[in-house]
Amino acid sequence: MNFDSALLTDLYQLTMLQGYYEQEMKNEAVFEFFVRKLPENRNFLIASGLQQVLEFLENLEFTSKEINWLSGIDKFSNSFLDYLSGITFQGDVHAMPEGTVFFPDEPILRITAPLPQAQLVETRVINFLQFQTMIASKAVRISLAAEDKVLMDFGLRRAHGAEAGVLAARASYIAGLTGTATVLASRKFDIPVFGTMAHSYILAHRSEIEAFENFSYAQPNNVIYLVDTYDVADAVNQIISLEPALKKRGITIKGIRLDSGDISALSITVRKMFDNAGMKHVRIYASGDLDEYSIEHLNKIKAPVDGFGVGTKMITSSDQPYLNCAYKLQEYNGIPKMKLSEGKSTWPGKKQVFRHYDNHNFIKYDVLKMDNETDSGKPLLQQVMKSGKQIQQPVSATQIRSFVKSELKTLPEEMKSLNKSKPYEIKISDALENCVKQLNIRIK
Question: What is the DSSP-derived secondary structure letter of residue 383?
Answer without folding.
Answer: E
